[in-house]
Amino acid sequence: MTSIDALISQKDSLAYWNNIDSTVNGMMGGYPHISRVDIRGSLNFISKLRSRRPKSILSRAADIGAGIGRVTAGVLSRTASTIDIVEPVSKFADQARQLGSDGGLTTMGDGRVGQVYVCGVEDWIPERKYDLIWIQWCLGHLKTEQAVTCLVRCGEALSEGGWIAVKENLSTNVTGEDVFDELDSSVTRTDASYRALFMSAGLKVCMTELQKGFPSELFPVRMYALRPS
Ligand SMILES: C[S@@+](CC[C@H](N)C(=O)[O-])C[C@H]1O[C@@H](n2cnc3c(N)ncnc32)[C@H](O)[C@@H]1O
Fold it and tell me: What keywords were assigned to this record (predicted)?
């Protein structure tokens, strides 16, 4: 266990998220206007990843740490027919469940929300296979060992030819260290720490790209496409 692992607390992070509004502003930490750029970056990444069949629709995706379903609505519903949701905060999960019906975000593609699992991803045991498992701004809430276990489970839950996509902030610490944020009890990892996590989980990086177009005061955000090695 690293010294930061000892500080990470699921109880504290859930207390933080339960106090956050169920809005795009809440999901984006006060930068709602960059949600569109984020979604465009993710869609471009997926279409490069699927360069041979970019327009064909995947059967099933999962949105991990989905919040109110911003990624499901903007990205995954344009990519897959059915999207399962994993989100521990019930008020967010309830809103994600409503996507495509009323309330919620209205910008859904043709995909629909399938099963909604109201739990932390550390407690999620996938019950079926997925063509794409999207994990965005959520792995920082897990200790190293939990993150590795979660990635191993996700790797085992991929259908033939499927991918895990991880999209996370990267630490810019001058001495190249992971940084703990006590506000939401999360760790911002370095690129090297993420790659070490992936390797420990038996995953290889098939493609990776920095998100472009975010304000310079924010952490750099990197996308990784992963498959069992
Ligand atoms: C910054 S929001 C991102 C939401 C969504 N991924 C997006 O990009 O719009 C972080 C989300 O992670 C969720 N979260 C916190 N701890 C988690 C855990 N242990 N497992 C899964 N999700 C978690 C929070 O409830 C919150 O919805």
Answer: Methyltransferase, S-adenosyl-L-methionine, Transferase
For 39-52, what is the mean pLDDT? 94
Q: Which residues surround ligand 1 with Cβ inside 6 Å?
A: 10, 13, 17, 27, 65-67, 70-71, 86-89, 92, 120-122, 136-138, 141-142
pLDDT above 80 for 110: yes
Domains and CATH numbers, the chain: 10-228 (3.40.50.150)
The pair of three-digit structure tokens given for residue 162, joined into one six-digit string = 């499927």
Alpha-carbon distance values, 92 to 58, 96, 104, 162 (Å): 25, 6, 10, 27
Q: Which two tokens stand for residue 13?
A: 């992070």
Q: Which helix (H) or strand (E) holds 188?
A: strand 186-188
Q: Which of 141, 181, 221 to mutate to test the pocket of ligand 1 (most atoms within 8 A of CB)?
A: 141
Task: Provide the pLDDT confidence category of residue 53 given band limits of 50, 70 and 90.
Answer: confident
Q: Is the dihedral of CA 177, 4, 18, 198 positive or negative?
A: positive
Model confidence pLDDT, tens digit, residues 61-96: 999 999 999 999 999 999 999 999 999 999 999 999
Q: What is the mean pLDDT of residues 122-144?
A: 98
